[in-house]
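Hmm, what's this shape?
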Amino acid sequence: MEKDSTLWKEEEAKEIKERIIAALEQVIDPELGIDIVNLGLVYNVHLYENGFCQIDLTLTTMGCPLVDVITDDIIHALRTVPEVTSSEVKLVWYPAWDTTKMSRYARIALGIR
């Protein structure tokens, strides 16, 4: 599999990745009620020229019982991006997640300074 897309021009690939991020903002962490992007759980988006998209994702804790729910929601959300033909969620644990990865919006919503 070839690394990040050459099928699209750089500007097109950037726009597609922005739409992927927007789709991921619709995936809500069921425990915290905040989307996975603002929580800082999405570490990377890889888009390959064959339309395959890999999301590097971490979780707030290892052994999170909702990993399957979140993964299924991600796969479903990516179906709204026409250029994505298939997808996979890769769980990563480094660097470890902490509250500094959260957006200002998420910190305010959860009452974290």
